[in-house]
Write a structure and sequence with these properties.
Blueprint (H helix, E strand, L loop, with lengths): L1 E5 L3 H13 L3 E5 L2 H9 L6 E5 L7 H8 L9 E6 L4 H9 L4 E4 L4 H33 L9 H18 L3 E8 L2 H8 L1 H18 L5 E6 L2 E6 L4 H17 L2 E3 L2 E3 L3 E8 L7 H17 L5 E5 L1
Parallel strand pairs: 1-2, 1-3, 3-4, 4-5, 11-12
Antiparallel strand pairs: 6-8, 6-11, 7-8, 9-10
Length: 303
């Protein structure tokens, strides 16, 4: 574990280095608060910090206050090293952003005990951040396939609508679903049906551009947002996905299964006002037409 120490007294710095290194810490030393601030600004700065209260240029209190403005995650755990032990001084130090303090002369065992508290605090923060990120992922992604869920992909569509209006370009929306998917579930069971959905998701994702958005719209239906695509480009991408799924059988726990998709797309340009509902309805109508005309095909129109 790295720890940043800032103290203008070379003797104290040496004592701290010896004590901390002996207990497995990687010590980064600074001779004053200004040096400490520069290191604290770096992306990979230590999460544990120990500052002397009184330093030239920038005091430990001032250093704490500046570091707290960085809004890092996890927040660094900061100890102040000081000869002050008056209650008002302690309150001032904690109000500046320090988590704890230790008085001079320091005792190595006390220092280690307080640092252990800091390590527990950092570990707890990391666990909370991980849990928060997981919740964010779950809130925006489909539980089965891992792609965007309906709410998130529609939000991405809203953002694309706003962008294309500003940039004066064409974009497109495509809906596709599996042909005769009920038959897959009835024949092989819903577990295999889920495997088919996941494999189709992987295949589709493999041919999309980094800036395309792809989400599960509902059941076996998926939605694609294709920025900066005209009619020809939209057809090429949709046909590529359709052909990939049809030509390569889906690997499942019961063996290879042949499936196909029908695709309905809508190309829209910035010179027309349109709502999200209108564009989805057009794509959905084209999807219905694709199914009416024999399935396993692409139908699109321009709005």
């Amino acid at each position: 574990m790295k720890i940043l120490i800032a103290d203008d007294d070379p003797v104290i710095r040496k004592q701290l280095e010896l004590s901390l290194s002996k207990n497995g810490y990687e010590v980064i030393q600074c001779k004053n608060g200004l040096e400490g601030l520069e290191i604290a600004k770096s992306i990979d700065s230590p999460s544990l910090m120990l500052f002397d209260w009184s330093m030239p240029g920038l005091t430990g209190l001032e250093l704490c206050k500046q570091i707290r403005t960085f809004k890092r995650e996890p927040e660094p755990y900061i100890l102040l090293l000081t000869s002050k032990n008056d209650t008002n001084d302690v309150i001032e130090g904690l109000d500046s952003g320090a988590n704890d303090y230790i008085t001079k002369p320091f005792y190595p065992h006390e220092l280690q005990a307080r640092l252990k508290i800091g390590l527990k605090s950092i570990k707890l923060q990391l666990e909370l951040i991980k849990a928060r990120n997981m919740l964010a992922i779950e809130a925006n992604h489909d539980y089965l396939t891992g792609i965007l869920n309906r709410r998130a992909v529609m939000k991405a569509f809203e953002l694309e609508i706003e962008r294309y209006k500003r940039d004066d370009k064409s974009s497109s929306l495509a809906l596709f679903d599996l042909d005769f998917f009920k038959k897959v579930n009835d024949t092989y069971g819903h577990v295999v049906g889920d495997e088919v959905l996941c494999e189709i998701t992987k295949k589709t994702s493999s041919v999309l551009r980094p800036y395309d958005s792809f989400g599960r719209y509902g059941g076996e239906e998926f939605l694609l947002i294709l920025p900066d695509c005209n009619e020809e480009e939209t057809y090429i991408i949709c046909e590529r996905i359709r052909k990939l799924i049809y030509d390569s059988k889906i690997n499942t726990s019961v063996g290879l299964i042949s499936v196909s998709i029908s695709v309905g797309a809508c190309v829209f340009s910035s010179n027309k006002n349109c709502s999200i509902e209108e564009l989805v309805k057009i794509a959905d109508d084209n999807l219905y037409e694709a199914k009416e005309q024999g399935r396993n095909c692409v139908r699109f129109s321009k709005f």
